[in-house]
Amino acid sequence: MTTTISSPKRLRGVRLLPALARDPVEACTRAALADGGLARLRIGPIQVYVVSHPDYIRRVLVTNAGNYTKGRIMDGIRVALGSGLFTADGALWKQQRRLMQPAFAHTQRDHVASVTVDAWQRRMSGWETSGPVDLLAEFMSLNVEVILDVLFSTSIGPDRTRRLLDLSDAVFAGMAKQLPAFVLPGWVPVPGRGRYRQAVADLGAEIHAIIDERRAEGPRGDLLDSLLEARDPESGETMSDQQIRDEIFTLFMAGYESTATSVTWTCYLLLARRPDALGRLREEIDRVLGGRVPAVADLDQLPYLGQVVAEGLRLYPAFPMYFRSATEADQLGERTIPAGAQLIVSPYATHRDPDYWPNPEEFDPERFSPEADSRARRTAYYPFGMGQRRCIGEPMSLTIALLTLAALTQRFELTLATDRPARGRYAMTYQPRNGLPTYVTPRGQPAE
Q1: Res 223: pLDDT
Q2: Are 266 and 312 in contact (CB under 8 A)?
Q3: Which of 71, 97, 134, 404 is most buried, by CB atoms within 10 Å?
Q4: CB-side exposure of 145: number of CA atoms within 13 Å?
């Protein structure tokens, strides 16, 4: 193995920024997989390393994770998320993780499931089925309702929900546009930065208003109460109001959008590529549920549902790229990452590595069956991250995804409204660019 990290010719120099602007996920994936899971992207003297080989991923995220901080790559994202758990580093991150872990343990899976199923049954009952339904938009609205209930034990009207979604979309789009900023000097202006900051301010005002309204009502035993009451077991400190804001903002942004996007892609993959898998999934759900509304206790009896969601997350992980900065020089295999290097960690690319996933672009839930070879699942699968910074909301996200797909499959026949292949749009997550317009035909109402 060479000690030189190659730079793909098609992504050198000034070609890099247009490629990143068009589709950074695909650009980084092509670079990484073409160069053994570690590629160097260059703009003049500035270098960024794309990492996807499972051995190197484990080095960066687990065995030498202390050497890799969020760093200045995250500066543009901190404009929105402040010092929340997603962006924090070092001692602050450790303190916040200690404070928040009990709060998430307190957020019972049964409660998340109950809120999800109730909200989903109401939403499906109100669908107008004479025309196509945009599943991405529906999942987004549903998840806002679920996340607000889990965070604040509250709900808001449709107009306010629409405003939250519009502002959140503007914030995510603004974050994504900051991506080229970490390969440029700080004095170079980034287009749209003013609009991004305004969207952050407007969304922050909405979130602050919800927090203030909720706190005025007194304790209700929700996640907000858990965060307000949390004390660091080592220092005894509680969170400041600003830290509460940063964490709530982070949980709201990460919670509703990533899960909705993942479920949307899974629906697309079932409908466009594997209608036979959809039929098998429906048979399992009908047999296990017998027409009743799904509950969290049913999930262990729906193994194929779990396989379908896991395979959807392989092809479209919640966040397709992570960002890190190397504090000191490090060895990834036989190659050297210099001190101060900026890294893009790409689960999207790792999950498509043909050395670990045969026919990697094929949607095949059987990869996650108990009988399948588990080598790839153990070493080359990390849709929620890996190591100590693995997503704290993973159990909640999976519960929402599983129950949403179960309820949808149980109640409706689905048909895509267009034959055109779905294409991704990077906005921190990786959404279907034009949503997912789908015809829905009721199969009959489940028993209450």
Answers
A1: 79
A2: yes
A3: 404
A4: 20
Note whether 265 and 257 are within 8 A (CB): no
Per the structure, the count of domains in the chain is 1
Torsion of CA 67, 72, 78, 79, to 10 degrees: 180
Tell whether 444 is covered by a domain: no
Q: Give pLDDT < 70 ranges for the chain.
A: 1-21, 43-46, 73, 105-107, 178-191, 444-448
- What is the residue range of 315's domain? 9-419
Q: What is the pLDDT of residues 231-260, one digit of tens each?
A: 777 777 788 888 888 888 888 887 778 899
Note whether residue 436 is domain-resident. Answer: no
- The answer to whether 399 touches 113, Cβ cutoff 8 Å, is yes
Dihedrals phi, psi of 194, to nearest 5 degrees: -65, -45
User: Which CATH number belongs to the domain containing residue 144 in this structure?
Assistant: 1.10.630.10
| pLDDT on residue 281 | 97
- Residue 438 resides in a domain: no
pLDDT of 427 reads 81
Which helix (H) or strand (E) segment is 315 a member of? helix 303-315
DSSP state of 350: H
Can you tell me the distance from the alpha carbon of 199 to that of 181, in angstroms, rounded to the nearest whole number? 18
| C-alpha to C-alpha distance for 338 and 341, rounded to whole angstroms | 6
Helices 135-152 and 109-125, axial angle in degrees (round to 10):
140
